[in-house]
Design a protein that fits this description.
The complex is a heterodimer. Helices cover 48% and strands 11% of the residues of chain A. Chain A is mostly helical. Chain A has two domains: 66 residues, no CATH class; 61 residues, no CATH class. In chain A, strands 1-2-3 form a three-stranded antiparallel beta sheet. By secondary structure, chain B is an all-alpha fold. The chains are: A mainly alpha, B mainly alpha.
Chain lengths: 152, 181
C-alpha cells in the first residue's frame, strides 16, 4: 500500500528533494521496492567493467605521443551544461550592454555626425562557439539591441 | 610506486611516474568514458585527453580529496564534452545532408575479438544517469561520492542513480517478457 503511494508521489512530484526524501525514507529500506531496482551484479553485466577494457599498458604510447604536442588539448573542459548556459547568458548580456553603451556614447561624442550609420556585426561567438545573433533597432531610435545565443 | 609517489613524480614531470599513473588508472578512466559515451574510439580519445589534462593541471589537485574521484571528475567532464561534440557534428551532418564515412584513426578495425561496449539498454539513460550507475556498480561509490564526480548535490545523485536502476530493471523485465511471451 505504502509502496504504491510512494510510487505515485515519486511520479507526480518531479522535484529532486522530494524524490530524494521518498528514496531515503521508504524505497531504500523496502524489499519490494528494492526488488524493482537493478542490482549491482545486473548492472555490472550491462556495463563495461575496468578489468575488461584491455591492457592499460597499450594506452601509454598514445598518451606519450600526444604529450609531445602541447596545445592540442583544451586547457579545461566545459563544465556542467547549466554552467555553460550561465556563461552564455552572461556573455550575451555583456554584448548587449557593450553595444548599447557604444552607440549611446558615440551619439554624445558626435552630435553633428551626418547621415545614417550602418551597423554591422561580422561574427559573434558565445562560449567559444558560433552564436545565433539578432539585431533589433526600434523605429525612429538610434539604439541598437543585439541578442546573441548559443546555437542549439 | 604508491599513489603519493606517483603524484609527486608527475608533478615533477617524470615520464616514468606519468606512465605508472596511466597504467594504474587507465582502465578505470577508459571504462567510465566508455560507459558514458558508448563508443570505443571516442572513449580512447577522452582517456588520452583526461591524462594530458591531469599531467598539466596536477598542481590544482587538492590532496585532502580522493585522487581517484578528482580524476574521474575530469574524465566525466571530458566525456560530456565529447558527447556535445558528437551531437553538434550529427546536427551539422544532418543539415549538410551527407552521411559521414567512418574515418580510420590508426586503430585495428579488423581485429577478431570485439572490444567490450556497454549494453544498448544504457542508451535509454541520460549521461548523468549512466555515470551514476557505472560509478555505483563498478566502483562501489555512494551517492555522496557520485555527487562529487557529477558536481551536484548528494540528493540529486541519489535520484539519478535510483532512476537509472529502475529504468533499466523495467527494460530488462520487458525484454524478458517479450522473449518469453
Amino acid at each position: 500500500m505504502f509502496c504504491r503511494m510512494a510510487d505515485l508521489l515519486y511520479a507526480a512530484l518531479p522535484l529532486r528533494p522530494i524524490r530524494d526524501w521518498l528514496i531515503r525514507s521508504h524505497m531504500e529500506g523496502c524489499p519490494r521496492c528494492q526488488a524493482r531496482l537493478l542490482s549491482r551484479e545486473e548492472a555490472r553485466g550491462l556495463l563495461v567493467v575496468p578489468d575488461r577494457v584491455g591492457d592499460p599498458r597499450a594506452l601509454w604510447p598514445r598518451i606519450a605521443a600526444r604529450r609531445e604536442r602541447p596545445g592540442r588539448v583544451p586547457e579545461t573542459p566545459r563544465v556542467a551544461a547549466g554552467a555553460a548556459w550561465q556563461v552564455a547568458a552572461v556573455a550575451a548580456l555583456a554584448l548587449v550592454i557593450a553595444v548599447t553603451g557604444f552607440w549611446v556614447l558615440r551619439e554624445i561624442e558626435t552630435p553633428t555626425a551626418a547621415g545614417p550609420v550602418r551597423f554591422e556585426i561580422a561574427y559573434v561567438k558565445v562560449g567559444g562557439a558560433p552564436a545565433q545573433t539578432f539585431v533589433y533597432q526600434p523605429q525612429g531610435s538610434d539604439t541598437v539591441f543585439v541578442w546573441a545565443q548559443r546555437t542549439p | 610506486m604508491n599513489e603519493r609517489e606517483t603524484i609527486d613524480g608527475c608533478l615533477a614531470g617524470d615520464p616514468l611516474s606519468q606512465r605508472a599513473m596511466v597504467e594504474a588508472y587507465g582502465n578505470l578512466v577508459l571504462s567510465v568514458a566508455l560507459n558514458v559515451i558508448g563508443n570505443r574510439q571516442d572513449a580512447e580519445d577522452v582517456c588520452q585527453e583526461t591524462f594530458l589534462q591531469v599531467f598539466r593541471r596536477l598542481d590544482r589537485y587538492d590532496r585532502a580529496r580522493s585522487f581517484k574521484t578528482w580524476l574521474l571528475t575530469i574524465a566525466y567532464r571530458r566525456s560530456l564534452d565529447m558527447l556535445r561534440k558528437r551531437r553538434r557534428f550529427k546536427e551539422f551532418s544532418a543539415k549538410a545532408r551527407f552521411e559521414p564515412d567512418v574515418v580510420g584513426r590508426g586503430g585495428n578495425p579488423g581485429r577478431a575479438d570485439p572490444e567490450p561496449v556497454p549494453s544498448v539498454l544504457l542508451k535509454k539513460l541520460s549521461p548523468r544517469e549512466r555515470t551514476a550507475l557505472a560509478l555505483w556498480a563498478n566502483e562501489g561509490y555512494s551517492a555522496k561520492d557520485i555527487a562529487e564526480v557529477l558536481t551536484c548535490s548528494a540528493s540529486t545523485a541519489r535520484v539519478y542513480l535510483f532512476n537509472a536502476r529502475r529504468k533499466i530493471k523495467a527494460l530488462l523485465e520487458n525484454t524478458h517478457v517479450l522473449q518469453n511471451g
